[in-house]
């Protein structure tokens, strides 16, 4: 295949960064208020609740949890506490000591107490016979009313006993500057939810009544002084927070994690209206332009490394409509469905018709609901589809409804080669498209151009110019892909799945090696 293949890392966009377990006693952060009540479980496990047939009692100064037999899912056997008060975009540390009578994988979450039980921390930790201290760090995301911590022991045919002690949840970092810090609403301390929590990423439909905007006004052109939003949860930043002592961390923080670029949205984003609205609100609070990439088209990637997407056409129409509605009248840059226009050769005629109909629908939704957003279809790259053919496909996909098209998304072609290709595509657009369509170039990994004809994690690639207004014919030169995210298990990262951040890939991009 000629295009990049990528999807966000298995860490969900809403999920925090965590640390590794250590042996011995967990050490709470000093001098900070503990949000957990009775984390020592003395004299009894007051304020803590359990679910199903699970029981908890204090034995020798620790909570002993008895997990029943035949639990089919982690949340079928839980210990938990509600009443948390988190501050948006602040860093927290959850620490605890734990052991078990058998080696068991236990799911730890900090989550909302109501459906769809969205998480800001979702981590699987191994409990062993010897007591070990565990320290998990995470970022509290706005839009997720996380009010409870859970230990989820279920999903096993045979029951066992576990011990938990010294549970502490404390703030360990300041909110991100410029973003309003609004404490989450919460229930009373230790309150048990009305229904059994299910700490799963939500794929539920967004709330009805998505907001539509007033008639569009003319969107101003790119400005050399335009500021772009840096995603505080990008995969590079997440890795740096988790591995701050790694000798590569400082280089990755400066060269990649702190740079503005695209946030990709898909099924992993949970409720798409909430996810998008939260993100553009955070960008607006810093007076910067967010770059958003919807990536959920059905039959995505023709079954390749980034296969997936919405379950069908109707599901996608709801999803993309709510995406556009959540952007609303705020300024934003949107690149619609990378590869979706170019990567149709695997499809039947009927499949192609359905694909282009969905893309056209997407452009119509953004035109109607996000009048101040600059929206671009994806136009492939200079080494893939012939310019005249690409122009025809873009026209069919509804490019006339949006700002224009993007090229080189997640690819490695130089800015000059990409601009040359885009100019040819633009010249071939029908019905005056050559006069009106703009284009942008993804420069995230094109500093050295393409390496030896390899698109997937090639050696010798290098970071391109950071996000900025275009310097030639392009309206923008932006980092759409997060550098360091793998294209798939291939090239110089044969064991790294698509969308997973790899520090070796990142450092080689920084060095151009």
Automatic annotation (TrEMBL):
Q: SUPFAM superfamilies per the record?
A: Galactose-binding domain-like, Glycosyl hydrolases family 6, cellulases
Q: Which residues form a coiled coil?
A: none
Q: Which residue stretches belong to region Disordered?
A: 164-230
Domain of life of the organism encoding this protein: Bacteria
Q: Entry's Gene3D superfamilies?
A: 1, 4-beta cellobiohydrolase, Galactose-binding domain-like
Instruction: List the keywords (alphabetical).
Output: Carbohydrate metabolism, Cellulose degradation, Disulfide bond, Glycosidase, Hydrolase, Polysaccharide degradation, Signal
Look up the signal peptide feature and give its range. Answer: 1-26
The CBM-cenC domain covers: 34-126
- What are its E.C. numbers? 3.2.1.-
| InterPro entries according to UniProt | Beta_cellobiohydrolase, Beta_cellobiohydrolase_sf, CenC_carb-bd, Galactose-bd-like_sf, Glyco_hydro_6_CS
Q: Which GO terms describe its biological process?
A: cellulose catabolic process
Start-end of Low complexity biased regions: 196-216
- Enumerate the GO terms in the molecular function aspect: hydrolase activity, hydrolyzing O-glycosyl compounds
Q: Where is the active site?
A: 301
Family named by the database record: Belongs to the glycosyl hydrolase family 6.
Q: What is this protein called?
A: Glucanase
Q: Which organism is it from?
A: Embleya hyalina
